[in-house]
Fold this protein.
Amino acid sequence: MLIFSKSSIRLFIEHTAATFIVSFFKIIKLLFKDFELILIRSSRIGHQALDLEACLRRPDLYPTIDPQKSIFISDKPANIFLHQLRKRNLKIITNNFIYRLFFRYRRSNKNSDLVKQLPTHWCVKPPTEIFTNSKTHLNLTSDDNLKGEMILKKLGIPNDAEIITFSARDSKYLKNEMPGQDWSYHDFRNSNINNYAKALDRFVNKKLYAVRVGKTCEPLKHKSPYILDYTDGLRTDLGEIYLIGRSKFFLGTTSGSNATALSLNIPFIQVNSAPIGSVPFGDLGIFIPKISKLRSGEVLSISQVKDKGLLFSGLAADFDKADVELVENSVEDIANAIEEMFEILDHGVKETQNQVALRKWLSFKYEKGYKAVISEKFLNSHPSFLDIL
């Protein structure tokens, strides 16, 4: 008598299901020549917000993909409501098993045209090519907005008040949501959310509230009647999208929430940018980088950082090897950037010689340049940073 283990039975069922699913879509592909099967990554909010947004805004960059004739296959989405917004206009299958199946199939059948991976052109194309002067495809309905207004009421924010949303990258989300993998290689991108709140405290009042957004975050200790935390029990996926979309501007760092603000065309301040060369996309904001310094105490200029090969490095080990540490922006630097954003919103961007110089200097990476500019107040406070003039 044959006895099969549970694992062998599970593998048999998965293999049978995989064979059936792949065969089914091969038949569909034969019957409908224009049909496309596209993998999209939704488990990380940055990719979820920007991958499809770039495809919809700049279809000329995706000549082989017609979103209206495609079926997208997604893994488990980071934000359910954002996923639902996409599904209102696109055909999306949401299933981790099917996503992993076709992901493995694509890797082992590189010459097959059965399934494609949606390219992340926004990672490599000059940012102005995609997110400048284009409308968002994330449109909330009147019913969505009514639910959002109820969230404002629960938070105690008057409907006629303005809000700033803010968020900081930390290690808690990945440790809790994606355990079993060592994410410490990019811990150098993390920062202290309380410094953001302390800086915002200088500007908030009964007509201007600051709301911290995010999911599974380190606690916000610095609070006030006008600085609120929406990452606790009140949080919903709809609420986060609504609050960011209603913001006067967004204050954050290189993270998924920042990507959400960009996809919604919300002005932003990107503080604690790391690595330094990771400039924000679009033309709606300003940024300030973390300070790079040797462990001996010497502060490095941007060209010295480039000479050490760290301008675009995404690995903490590279900084350790070069004996370089990244220092978070001070509360004063963040407050100065906020003040500068208010000036930009009132009077527009008026680039200085220093800002133009840095933008042109970085053109070796972004061949057509970018519109977001480094904070002039930051350059004034750290004159040794910019040594390229």
The two ends are 81 Å apart (CA to CA). The first helix runs from residue 6 to 31.
